[in-house]
Amino acid sequence: MKTSKLEGLRERRRRIIAGGGDDKIKARREKGLMTARDRLGALYQPDTFQESGMHIAHSGRHFGTDGKDIPADAIVTGTGYVNGQLVAAVAQDFTVSGGTVGKMHATKIVETMKFAAKFGIPFVAFKDSGGARIHEGVDSLSGYGDVFYQNVLLSGVVPQIAVVCGPCAGGAAYSPALMDFVIMTRNAHMFITGPEVIKAVTGRTTTMEEVGGAAMHASVSGNVHFVAEDDRHAIQIVHRLLSYLPANNTEDPPHHISPDIVMDHDEAMNDLLPSDPAEAMDVRRIIAHLVDGGELLEVHADFAKNIIIGFARIEGLVIGLIANQPMQNAGALDIDASDKAARFIRFCNIFNIPLVTLVDVPGFFPGIDQERGGIIRHGAKMLFAYASCTSPKITIVLRKAYGGSYMAMCSKEMGADFVYAWPNAEIAVMGAEGAVNILYRKELSKAPDRKAKAAELAADYRAQFASPYMSAEHGYLTDVIEPAETRGVLALALRKTLAKREQRPAKKHGNIPL
């Protein structure tokens, strides 16, 4: 081949790879920010990234864009390997036209997503864009629509992970919202309307952090699952997340199955429970003893802290863990906790990830705000999610399991394959104290010492009607076990459920109470 042709190709590649130019790239790196290509380089194993669509040109024809050079149309797309797993990814390039989205920019994203669907591999998207390229008018909006539609087609087929590492404004925010997990760096912002628009419409002065900051989305709106300190930290989270996930919905999770199961008793578990059943217990201490290495990749850690969700392994088997956290609102379920858990349960069901549920729940959180906010509808999401889940489900009742929340935390009636309880567990319509005030109202009104009589009756009620042995006698529990046995019991039960296959009535889909 003529040298001139080769040099022409090399020069063209150099120009495209340079993106917005050396000055812009240098300025970003001095701020501690990665470029689009830096991010993909850190995501993938060395020398495994193959770019696609490098030479695609934008389709703008107005406002001075005709003939304008927009390298790679402000987005880098392709595939590579992450810890041996093929992954498709896109990274918006803010150094080129502010990473704005035009029709061909969107087409590159869609083609990468279609590749992910066809080959059954995870899809990762780095979001860093000034929004729609207004020079292209409705063509830009059409591009967004193409992306949203493909997000929905991929949903339930392959894992989708969004990394918001720059601006993500207006309609652009809906693509991350349609994906399975959203990781956001602290310097990034995601919003539909910014502070200026809010002030113009409402008169209220706000800051960018209040409207679209990572901390707000992680703790208040619930739009963000993980907050990263910077780009590298975000990519580390992507790597950890992918280590627990199958490539697609036809594969099993990446279990590390050992030939033997360790059934040793952990005597320290017997000492973790407070002697007073009314005393709050940090469920994290229990989790640390149950999962391999005490390592839990917690999801939505800053949102609805009264329930904990995340990924872990028990004797090498990947699990999705859901646990009430009594240290926050006594572990009661509220609107946000219900939404948080239900969506996680449905994700695990898609990818056949076994669910382990740790129960210590006094009920649904009371209050007029909860009732007016739709706690009935939101709580029903948990019931729907657990009941429709066909992946393995194992439940451990640690302490309290009262009323409707007993079912909402995956009782046998909601399809749990194994349900175990610790000997101190209380399973009842309501707590003993509340039940006694209703059942023995007359006796208490006549008692010389009402408080002492109520305590006596509550202890009797707890022993007779809330005892785990009563539930076991009626077949609602698989067994009552010592806390020290729990890890071994879980490990064995998980191993036995790996081949679970459950057929459901044929239907297009159920109607979850959104």
CATH topology of the largest domain: the name is: 2-enoyl-CoA Hydratase, Chain A, domain 1
The shape, in one word, is elongated
Low-confidence runs (pLDDT<50, min 5 residues)?
Answer: none
**What composes the largest sheet?**
8 strands, mixed
Helix content: 25-40%
Structural class designation: alpha/beta
If you had to describe this structure to a student in words, what would you say it looks like?
With 514 residues, this protein is α/β, with parallel strands linked by helices. The chain contains 20 helices and 17 strands. It folds into three domains: 3-242, 2-enoyl-CoA Hydratase, Chain A, domain 1 (Alpha-Beta Complex); 267-430 and 467-497, 2-enoyl-CoA Hydratase, Chain A, domain 1 (Alpha-Beta Complex); 432-465, no CATH class. It has helices spanning 3-17, 22-30, 36-43, 103-119, 138-154, 174-177, 195-202, 208-212, 214-221, 231-242, 283-290, 335-350, 368-373, 375-388, 403-408, 432-439, 441-446, 450-465, 468-473, 486-497, and strands at residues 50-52, 75-82, 85-92, 123-127, 160-164, 167-169, 181-185, 189-191, 226-228, 297-299, 307-314, 317-324, 355-361, 393-402, 418-421, 426-428, 479-480. The strands form three sheets. Strands 10, 11, 12, 13, 14, 15, 16 and 17 form an eight-stranded mixed beta sheet that branches. Strands 1-2-3-4-5-7-9 form a seven-stranded mixed beta sheet, with helices on both faces. Strand 3, helix 4 and strand 4 form a beta-alpha-beta unit. Helix 4 (103-119) packs parallel to helix 5, helix 12 runs parallel beside helix 14 and helix 16 crosses helix 18 (450-465). The radius of gyration is 27 Å and the shape is elongated. The model has no long low-confidence stretch (mean pLDDT 92).
